[in-house]
Amino acid sequence: MSFENLAIVNYRSSLVQELKLRMERNPSYSLRAFARDIDVSPGYLSQLINQQKSLSPRKAVSILKHLRWSYDKEKKFLSSVQYEHSETVLDEEPFGTPANGPEFSNMTLDIFELISRWHYGAILELLSLPNCTPKTEWISDKLDLPLSTADEAIKRLLRMGFLKKTKTGFQRCDPHLQIENMPSEAIRNFHRESLDRARVAIDLQEPNTRFFSSVILPFKSDRIKIVGDQIEKFRDSVNRQESKDPGNSVYQLCVSFFRVDANTKDS
Questions:
Q1: Over the stretch 216-226, which tens digit does the pLDDT of each residue have?
Q2: H-helix or E-strand containing 164?
C-alpha cells in the first residue's frame, strides 16, 4: 500500500507514520492488521487516512490506549483532533461534564493534562485549606511552580468547572466528573512526577515533616492484584480519616510496589 500521494496532516499523519513504521519492521503487516491492533474496522481506518471521515475525541482516546506513544506525542495527537473539532457541534456526551461546561473536544485534552500532571490535584487541595489565599501568585509560591504554569493550570481548572471565579479570586467547586478511557501514558507520567517529588522531599524536607518506609521481600507475582487491592484500601482509609478535619498543608501519599529482580521467565 502506498501513501505518497495522500495529503495527510496532523493526527492522520501520525497514524500513517505509525503504520509505515510497523510495515517496515514487518513486511507482512497491513492496514487491516493495524486496524485490528487499534480496535477499529479496516474500512473506517482507510476512510480516516484518506480524509473521508473525521476522528472524534472519544475515539481518539480509545485508539491511544492501544499505542505506546510518548506523553508529548499523545498530547499532540489529542490537540490535533481537538483543533479539527473546535468549530463543530458534537453529538457525543462529555465525560460527565457539568451543565454549561466546555465542549467534549476541549474536555478530552483537559482531562488528559489534568490526570498526567501532579500540580492540578495539589492546587485543588491547596484551595481547600482554611488559610488559603486564592491568588495565582500565592499558589505559584506555595507549590514552587513557575507563575505561567500556575496560571495555565488555574485557567484549565476554571474551564473544566473545578474552580469558579469569586470577588477575591477563585474557589474550589468539586463538580462530579467521571474520568474514563485515558491513555496509559498520562497515568504513567503522573506517577513519574510523583516519584520525582518524593525524591525532592527526601533531600529538602525535615524528617519530622515526612515519612518514608520500604521493605524488600520474596513475592509470588500472581498475587499482585491482591496486594494492589490492600494498598488501595489503605490509601482510601488514610484519605477518609485525614479528610475529616481541615488541614494546614497539602501532602501526597505515594505507594509503589514493583519487581526489583530481572524480569525473566520463572523456571
A1: 999 999 999 99
A2: strand 163-166
Q: Which residues contact 82 (CB under 8 A, 6 or more apart)?
A: 57, 105, 106, 108, 109
**Residue 53: all three cell numbers together:** 471521515
**Long-range contacts (CB closer than 8 Å, 24 or more residues apart) made by 248-251:** 248/129, 248/130, 248/131, 249/129, 250/122, 250/125, 250/126, 250/129
Please, are residues 77 and 14 in contact by the beta-carbon 8 Å criterion?
yes
Residue spans of the domains in the chain: they are 10-53
Of 166, 182, 153, 164, which Cα lies nearest the Cα of 61? 182
d(CA 135, CA 27): 57
Angstrom CA distances, 78 to 68, 128, 134, 178, 187, stand at 14, 31, 31, 19, 15
- Report the alpha-carbon distance of residue 193 to residue 11 in Å, rounded: 27
Cα–Cα distance between 103 and 125 in angstroms, integer?
Answer: 25
pTM beyond 0.85: no
